[in-house]
Amino acid sequence: MIRSLVLFTHVVGVLALFVGLGLEWIGLDGIQRSTTRAEALPGLRLIAIVPRVFGTALAAIVVSGFYLGARVGVLGNDWMRASYGALLLMAIVSGPVSRSPMRALKRVADIPADGTVSAMRAAAANPILRLSLRIRIAFGLAIVFLMIAKPAAGESLLVLALASMVTIATSLTRRTTPSTAVQGYR
C-alpha cells in the first residue's frame, strides 16, 4: 500500500511538472499575443504560479523517486544517473539561466501603464525563456523515457543527446506570423 501511494505521488509529481511547463508556455504565448495590458494579465498570472507548481512537483518527484529507487535498488543504475544529470540541467536552466529574463518580465509587468504592453511582449519573447522552456520539456520527456526503458549508460546518453538535438532543432525553426505570411499578397 505504501509503495502504491509513493508511486502515485511520483506520477502526480511528473504530471504536475508538465502542467507547470504547459502553464508557462500558455502564459508566455498569451503575453506575446496581447495588445493591451488587460489581455496580458491572465498570462502574467499563469507565470506567477509556475514556480510553486514546479517546486511542489520537484519535491514530489525527488522524494518519492529516491524512496522507490532505494526500495528497488536502482539508485546507482546508469539510467538513474542520466536522469539525475537531466534533472540538474533542468533545474539550472529553470533557475539561474532564466531567472534574469523572468525578473525583467515581472518588472515590466509591475508598471501599471497600458503603454508597457510592447515592453511586456518583448520581455516574454526573450529567446532565453523559450530555450529554457524547450530544454525542460525535452529533458523531462527524456527522463520519462529513461524511467520506462531503463537503458544502459550508452543508450541513456543517446536519449539525452537526442533530447538536446530536438531542443536545438526546435530552436532553429521560426514561426511565421500571420502578418508576414500574407505580406505582399493582395
Provide a descriptive summary of the structure in words.
- By secondary structure, the protein is mainly alpha-helical.
- Helices cover 83% and strands 0% of the residues.
- It has helices spanning 2-33, 37-72, 78-109, 117-124, 127-149, 153-172, 178-181.
- It is elongated and about 55 Å long.
- It starts with a helix and ends in a 5-residue tail after the last helix.
- The model is unreliable at 176-186 (pLDDT under 50).
Number of helices: 7
**Distance from first to last alpha carbon:** 67 Å
Content of β-strand: under 5%
Shape by Cα distribution: elongated
Q: List the secondary-structure elements in sequence, H or E.
A: HHHHHHH
Rg calculated over all Cα atoms: 19 Å
Query: Structural class of the secondary elements?
Result: mainly alpha
- Biggest beta-sheet profile: none
Q: What is the β-strand count?
A: 0
Report mean pLDDT, rounded to a whole number. Answer: 89
Q: Unreliable segments (pLDDT under 50, ≥5 consecutive)?
A: 176-186
Helix content: over 70%
